[in-house]
Design goal:
Distance between the termini of chain A: 19 Å
Number of helices of chain A: 16
Largest interface: A-B, 72 and 55 residues
Protein name (chain B): Basic membrane protein A
Strand content of chain B: 15-25%
Membrane topology (chain B): Lipid-anchor
Oligomer: heterodimer
Number of strands of chain B: 12
Structural class of chain B: alpha/beta
Structural class of chain A: mainly alpha
Family (chain B): Belongs to the BMP lipoprotein family.
Distance between the termini of chain B: 63 Å
Helix content of chain A: over 70%
Subcellular location (chain B): Cell membrane
Helix content of chain B: 40-55%
Largest sheet of chain B: 6 strands, parallel
CATH superfamily of the largest domain in chain B: Response regulator
CATH topology of the largest domain in chain B: Rossmann fold
Strand order of the largest sheet of chain B: 2-1-3-4-5-11
Number of strands of chain A: 0
Shape of chain B: globular
Organism (chain B): Croceifilum oryzae
């Protein structure tokens, strides 16, 4: 019975992976002399503790949802968009440009910045998409290169164009900000912003697109079997390009939202933000479904933000959270739970046959 | 099938959540708030507490304050730039008397949090906040160019090949100060010497640091100075593999001689620890002036060369002379 359940759904599999991941984290803590109960208590206490903690958790979740959706959508078309990172950076850069250099009335300014950020991300993803569709260049290679180009382009623009030779830009004009007073007050000053609502809308958009439209059907078909799709009269090339662009657009929007809501300025960075890579993990745990992505973002966002509090209250290094995060991914990716389940049920079948 | 999948994740997450709340009940939330009459919070940037650089040095200063002045100290590392605001907020809510943000990366977060918590005092290292310092903030800056100038003098007089190298972290104004001071020092001390400047565009990639160092030494340089955080570890790895007494490295921020004892000419020491201790002391005694910039230079021993050095006595004499000239204002060191 359990074997059957295991085989048929990611339900138990995800759950057990999460619990196992946290157990490994607890063992790591015990080995290095920390109290896991106090640590996990501090971690989860902060997620639900005060209004501002909860707000900061929601703020952490927001970019993860976007990044996860972006990766999941491309994945459905059989593409591994490891370039979410770079598309996110470019989206942020474009939004910063609009936020700093244009003078527009309040609501309109923010909308223009968001749209430009989305388009920038889409164009950034178009390049690997085109190369894949026309020349058959593997998107992973191109995406990784594009990530670095994005990072250093952004650094260059911050220093030379968006600021006067400084390490970071000024804050964007208030008219372009997507922080709103009622959310800030609701969460006791935490930096929750409209990005959260946009992220939920993006999840609904991806769901409708993938499962309720003809385009979505084609995207998924190409992902499942390109040759069969081609034979059925779909253009594989066209679908690859569209998928990459939508995926990049969502990533670009993530960058824009982070810039306009969370940071409100852009600075020179020595390394990529990492949100895009976390998005891969989010999509994996969420089984590439929009709802799954939202839920796994909640888990990881909670872990990340709670991890800081864990460090503060229980003195446990943040790296423990990375261990938990990594082991969960490892268990999900290796499908360990299902493997064990399968073996058990096969054994049983064997016994039945023998009897 | 689809439905089942996401339902699966849903159940999983909510289960963990319940489990968590269960654990959360019996935890000791006051652990973080046990403190004496004066308490200090310190938030590092993404470099962390053991960066062999200014975060570590800043922490040494407040730890000294903990021992000498009996103040309560708590430090928190930031993992992402986005963490600065919540980490500072956590200390402010904890009603800590003085809260440090270490590094120029805090130049947006400190004013933002200081605005919300008017009753707390804040201090930032390495940024003057563009001159707009809120009334409950003190900005601590260093004349990195002056210390780097002395490192340049030492390098210019020590080099046999008349070629010296500089490895920068990011090509940003903060690091350009080091480059400008160093180059000026080399030129003043030894007009024949040339300075080859390279940037790693990273503060953490030690491998890159090593390959840059290798190409500098292979290209003829025999003294290399770095201002590149973790990248600099690569410089020391490379110089260690070369002939001692011929190839030299100059460290930065802290005395880095233990990374390559035989090959470290000297280190340009930035006494962030002196600054954090001094400011913390003033805050405790109630003499701290807020809303201003406090600038530590050669004069205040805020920057300088490490005591532990392999500089020859003749060179050291000239370094001392240049130092006095800078303090007297006879030489103005360029900062960009």
């Amino acid at each position: 019975m359990i074997g059957k359940l295991n085989r048929n759904s990611t339900l138990i599999s995800s759950l057990i992976s999460i619990v196992l991941g946290m157990l490994v984290g607890a063992i790591a803590m015990l080995l290095s002399g920390y109290d896991p109960i106090a640590a996990y208590g501090a971690l989860f206490g902060s997620i639900f503790g005060s209004a501002s903690d909860m707000g900061e958790t929601l703020r952490t979740i927001t970019p993860l949802i976007f990044a996860g959706l972006s990766v999941a959508l491309a994945f459905r078309t059989g593409l591994f968009n490891i370039g979410v990172e770079g598309q996110l950076v470019i989206g942020g850069l474009a939004a910063a440009f609009v936020g700093l250099k244009l003078d527009l009335p309040p609501v309109l300014h923010a909308i223009v910045a968001l749209v430009v950020g989305t388009l920038a991300g889409a164009i950034w993803a178009l390049i690997p998409g085109l190369l894949k569709a026309i020349r058959g260049v593997h998107e992973v290679i191109v995406c990784i290169m594009m990530n670095w180009i994005a990072l250093f382009l952004s650094n260059y623009m911050v220093g030379k164009v968006l600021s006067n030779n400084s390490d970071s830009t000024e804050k964007i004009h208030p008219s372009a900000s997507i922080r709103v007073d009622f959310l800030t007050d609701l969460f006791d000053g935490a930096r929750v912003h409209l990005g959260l609502i946009l992220a939920i809308l993006a999840a609904i958009f991806v769901y409708v697109l993938l499962f309720k439209t003809k385009l979505g059907y084609e995207l998924r078909a190409v992902g499942l079997n390109p040759s069969a799709s081609e034979y059925a009269g779909m253009s594989v090339k066209r679908n690859i390009i569209i998928s990459m662009m939508i995926s990049g657009g969502i990533a670009g929007l993530a960058g824009a939202v982070e810039l306009l809501g969370t940071n409100e300025y852009l600075s020179i960075n020595a390394s990529l933000p990492g949100t895009g890579f976390d998005g891969i993990a989010v999509a994996l745990l969420g089984a590439n479904t929009p709802m799954g992505v939202v839920l796994s973002s909640m888990l990881f966002g909670g872990l990340f933000n709670g991890g800081n509090n864990m460090q503060y209250v229980a003195g446990v290094p943040f790296e423990v959270i990375r261990i938990v995060f990594a082991t969960i991914i490892l268990f999900v990716a290796a499908n360990i739970v299902k493997q064990v389940g399968n073996r058990k049920s096969r054994k049983k079948k064997g016994e039945n046959a023998g009897a | 099938m689809q439905m089942k999948r996401w339902l699966g994740s849903l159940v999983a997450v909510s289960l963990v959540a319940t489990l968590a709340v269960g654990c959360g009940g019996n935890k000791d939330k006051d652990k973080g708030t046990a403190k004496g009459d004066f308490s200090v919070g310190l938030v590092t940037d993404t470099g962390g507490l053991n960066d062999e650089s200014f975060n570590q040095s800043a922490n040494m200063g407040v730890q000294k304050a903990k021992n000498d002045l009996k103040v309560d100290v708590k430090a928190q590392e930031s993992k992402k730039d986005e963490d600065y605001v919540p980490n500072l907020t956590r200390f402010a809510k904890d009603k800590r008397n003085l809260i440090w943000g270490i590094g120029f990366k805090f130049d947006k977060a400190i004013p933002e949090v200081a605005e919300k918590f008017k009753d707390s005092k804040f201090a930032i290292v390495d940024s003057n906040l563009g001159g707009k310092i809120p009334s409950n903030v003190v900005a601590v800056t260093f004349k990195d160019e002056e210390g780097s100038f002395l490192a340049g003098v030492a390098a210019g007089l020590t080099t046999k090949s008349n070629q010296v190298g500089f490895i920068g972290g990011m090509s940003s104004p903060t690091i350009k100060k080091f480059e400008a001071g160093f180059t000026a020092g080399v030129k003043q001390a030894n007009p024949k010497a040339t300075v080859k400047v390279v940037y790693a565009e990273s503060f953490s990639d030690a491998t890159k640091g090593r390959s840059l160092a290798k190409s500098l030494y292979d290209g003829g340089a025999d003294v290399v100075y770095h201002a590149a955080g973790g990248v600099g570890k690569g410089l020391f790895d490379e110089v260690k593999s070369r002939q001692a007494g011929k190839y030299w490295a100059i460290g930065v921020d802290m005395d880095q001689s233990r990374l390559a004892p035989e090959h470290t000419l000297t280190s340009m020491v930035k006494r962030v620890d002196v600054a954090t201790f001094e400011i913390t002391k003033q805050a405790k005694e109630g003499t701290l002036k807020l809303g201003t910039e406090v600038n530590f230079g050669l004069k205040d021993d805020g920057v300088g060369l490490s005591k532990n050095s392999k500089i020859s006595p003749e060179v050291m004499k000239q370094v001392e002379e240049f130092k006095q000239k800078i303090i007297k204002g006879e030489i103005t060191v360029p900062s960009k």
